[in-house]
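Priority: low. Protein: Biopolymer transporter ExbD. Input follows.
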Amino acid sequence: MPRRKGAPEVNAGSMADIAFLLLIFFLVTTTIETDAGLDRMLPPMEPPENPPIIKQKNIFTVNINKNGQLLVEDNLMNLKDLRSSATAFLENGADGTCDYCKGRRDPSSSDNPAKAIISLKNDRETKYSTYITVQNELVGAYNDLRNREAQRLFGRDFTEMEAEYLNPETPKSVRDDLKDKVKRVQDMFPQKLSEAETSTN
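Result:
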């Protein structure tokens, strides 16, 4: 009686090569999303020897408690009113040096946009979503004013110009043209958003 042949062997020699090629394929084609952060400059490690003297009226104080309530300039305020209040403070123009400001020129408020500082302080138990929302409203106040001036001077929104300028795919000639325009508008309303030390109670 003839012997039965065993099951044919599967040649697995190339399986490692195939697995390696698949790994390379997925590494090359997979995109990893990066988290967007807040663009903030941290203070230096050592404070300056002669810090500048800042008048209290040039500081717009915003406090967030652990319940998400806003205390703006020592008064309770709804979040929906924060942007307009910050805008009014930034373009108050009390000293008369800002000829493009449309503020009330209240002598008890900020002298001019270059001296105006927004100070934000939050509690350790403040919700992150509340913190981000407040940040967005304050940055939005700067952007609204910058957009207004960019429209007046160049017929375009500042946020659109800045995004195009920062885009690495924008041609160099266009970026060179936008550089001075973006800086000019930024200098008109410099973003001075200071974060005070977080409170623990």
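The chain has five helices and five strands. Strands lie at 59-64, 70-72, 75-77, 117-122, 193-195.
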